[in-house]
């Protein structure tokens, strides 16, 4: 059973050859990835003396059990292995070379060719010319790496082409081998291999397999012919799993034709760097282009159907953009019949969503995604769950479902701090929570909340702010806790119950005892700045009542000093009271 899904899969991956790049022995991680980056940059190669282009998909880790599904879909088959090793002395060389052979055995049955890149070894051994080993003095002195990879890919193409021609022109009488997926093998023990039903099943599966090989070999129109014929053969015998694969092959070839820029978005848009190649390939595969697809004489009536001229005329034009989605739906419904094909079904859903995103058909894309959410795989590790929810979030974002995207990103954030993880990743959790804010219409700038009506669901926003406070505390950053709690109190005051207000203010009191709040910006590691939070809504004035001042501050009424001899009491030489009293005396005398 294939257990590890590749959530980054796109329809155009079906035309790629899979090459695994791995270290042997102890190789410094930074050195390995420096070379890996250079190798993986050689992702498309023009085939010499031909208009065809080969596309390569590199992986530095690939589960061997996934490799066992290589006959079902050939892009899942590891056909190339490149190993990188440190070897500084001649005495270590035999052991290093032995390890290379052991590594090859892991993927042995499917490998077309392999290479060993040795860094650090100089002298007699390094000077011997070899095709499968390249010696370099150091990681800084290896200018020919890219050229070596191009030669390696050409050698893969030679093997691919011979296999394609060999399978397409099978003349071995009635005995076409039955290709199987791993879980089917036990079901076919004791079957009548001479029955017409069995032979048709063998023919249909082999025809589909040849379609895969044509697609990888850069022969798009040929692959369409084979897939159409495989669909008819497999439909006739109700071979649903392989019928699903033939339909998906048809979808992949059609997507490659319609969308030469790829469907992977910023991840894996392989063709961006080779526009001229895409234009050339698109031109070569234009509707009505005259190509010799299959030599009818080379196909025997027993096996892969002799006269293909009718099929060529009918399949010349591939599926329309609408038909691609219908066929994806049909393929996924067939995969759903087999619990062991969960990964295949999940990946097909993801591929269909990427196509629908380009077609701007968001509602249909959401249906495929909803199906993907409920596909039950084996017990996933916490890391795999984080990856799964993050990709679902990214896909929902791509089709414009921002709140749904935020929902899955928040689940991924919670997964980072799951109790089962020995060292919970609170920083990763906090970072993912911050990324969910736009989806919930939440900004961390208090100014955005002083502009009239409240946007978004306050209850969800408060929950999110509480989670940011908790993650900040677990990261050991009390200043962040104070800032988020202050923000919660200031912006969500109208939505907090009396008990919640009490709880928030008590929490704020305990945090500010350790780390007083400031009016400075807080800059996070990724450059995000959190503005200060002035309490403009606190305190809340509900009613006004005048209270008596303390005795010491109360005003006292001054007694009238008229008629008194004030000159001795007053510090003033002249005062209005004295002037007034003197004026009165003067008037009496008159």
UniProtKB/TrEMBL annotation:
<dbReference type="Pfam" id="PF08626">
    <property type="entry name" value="TRAPPC9-Trs120"/>
</dbReference>
<dbReference type="InterPro" id="IPR058564">
    <property type="entry name" value="TPR_TRAPPC9_Trs120"/>
</dbReference>
<feature type="domain" description="Trs120/TRAPPC9 N-terminal">
    <location>
        <begin position="187"/>
        <end position="260"/>
    </location>
</feature>
<feature type="domain" description="Trs120/TRAPPC9 TPR region">
    <location>
        <begin position="363"/>
        <end position="510"/>
    </location>
</feature>
<comment type="similarity">
    <text>Belongs to the NIBP family.</text>
</comment>
<keyword id="KW-0333">Golgi apparatus</keyword>
<dbReference type="InterPro" id="IPR058563">
    <property type="entry name" value="Trs120_TRAPPC9_N"/>
</dbReference>
<dbReference type="Pfam" id="PF26251">
    <property type="entry name" value="TPR_TRAPPC9-Trs120"/>
</dbReference>
<protein>
    <submittedName>
        <fullName>Trafficking protein particle complex subunit 9</fullName>
    </submittedName>
</protein>
<dbReference type="GO" id="GO:0005802">
    <property type="term" value="C:trans-Golgi network"/>
</dbReference>
<dbReference type="InterPro" id="IPR013935">
    <property type="entry name" value="Trs120_TRAPPC9"/>
</dbReference>
């Amino acid at each position: 059973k294939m257990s590890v899904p590749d959530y980054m899969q796109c329809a155009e991956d079906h035309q790629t050859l899979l090459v695994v790049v791995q270290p042997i022995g102890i190789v410094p991680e930074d050195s390995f990835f420096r070379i890996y980056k250079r190798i993986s940059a050689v992702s498309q190669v023009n085939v010499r003396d031909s208009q065809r282009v080969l596309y390569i998909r590199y992986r530095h880790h690939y589960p061997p059990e996934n490799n066992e599904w290589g006959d079902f879909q050939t892009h899942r088959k590891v056909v190339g292995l490149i190993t990188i090793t440190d070897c500084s002395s001649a005495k270590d060389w035999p052991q290093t070379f032995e390890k290379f052979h052991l590594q090859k055995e892991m993927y042995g049955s499917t490998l077309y060719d392999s290479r060993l890149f040795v860094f650090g070894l100089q002298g007699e051994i390094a000077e011997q010319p070899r095709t499968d080993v390249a010696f370099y003095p150091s990681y800084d002195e290896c200018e020919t790496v890219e050229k070596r990879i191009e030669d390696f890919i050409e050698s893969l193409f030679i093997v691919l082409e011979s296999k394609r021609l060999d399978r397409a022109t099978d003349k071995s009488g009635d005995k076409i081998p039955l290709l199987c997926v791993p879980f089917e093998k036990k079901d076919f023990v004791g079957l009548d291999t001479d029955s017409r039903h069995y032979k048709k099943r063998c023919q249909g599966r082999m025809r589909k397999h040849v379609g895969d090989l044509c697609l990888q070999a850069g022969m798009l129109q040929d692959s369409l012919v084979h897939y159409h014929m495989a669909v008819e053969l497999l439909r006739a015998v109700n071979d649903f799993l392989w019928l699903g694969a033939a339909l998906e092959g048809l979808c992949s070839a059609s997507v490659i034709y319609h969308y030469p820029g790829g469907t992977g978005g910023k991840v894996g848009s392989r063709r961006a760097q080779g526009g001229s190649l895409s234009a050339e390939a698109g031109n070569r595969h234009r509707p009505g282009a005259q190509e010799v697809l299959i030599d009818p004489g080379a196909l025997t009536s027993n096996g892969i159907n002799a006269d293909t001229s009718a099929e060529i005329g009918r399949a010349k034009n591939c599926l329309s953009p609408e038909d691609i989605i219908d066929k994806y739906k049909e393929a996924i419904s067939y995969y759903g019949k087999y619990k062991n094909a969960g990964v295949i079904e999940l990946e097909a859903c993801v591929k269909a969503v990427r196509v629908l995103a380009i077609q701007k058909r968001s509602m249909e894309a959401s249906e495929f995604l909803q199906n993907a959410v409920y596909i039950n795989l084996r017990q996933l590790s916490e890391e795999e769950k984080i990856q799964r929810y993050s990709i679902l979030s990214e896909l929902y974002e791509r089709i414009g479902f921002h709140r749904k995207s935020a929902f899955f990103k928040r689940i991924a954030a919670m997964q980072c701090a799951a109790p089962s993880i020995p060292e919970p990743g609170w920083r990763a959790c906090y970072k993912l929570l911050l990324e969910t804010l736009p989806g919930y219409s939440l900004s961390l700038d208090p100014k955005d909340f002083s502009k009239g009506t409240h946007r978004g669901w306050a209850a969800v926003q408060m929950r999110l702010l509480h989670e940011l406070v908790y993650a900040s505390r677990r990261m050991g950053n009390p200043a962040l806790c104070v800032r988020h709690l202050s923000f919660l109190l200031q912006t969500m005051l109208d939505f907090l119950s009396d008990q919640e207000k009490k709880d928030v203010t008590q929490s704020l009191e305990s945090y500010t005892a350790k780390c007083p709040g400031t009016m400075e910006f807080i800059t996070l590691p990724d450059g995000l700045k959190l503005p200060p939070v002035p309490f403009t809504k606190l305190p809340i004035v509900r009613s006004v009542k005048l209270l008596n001042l303390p005795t010491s501050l109360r005003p006292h009424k001054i007694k009238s000093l008229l008629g008194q001899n004030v000159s001795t009491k007053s510090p003033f030489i002249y005062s209005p009271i004295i002037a007034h009293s003197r004026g009165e005396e003067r008037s009496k005398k008159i």
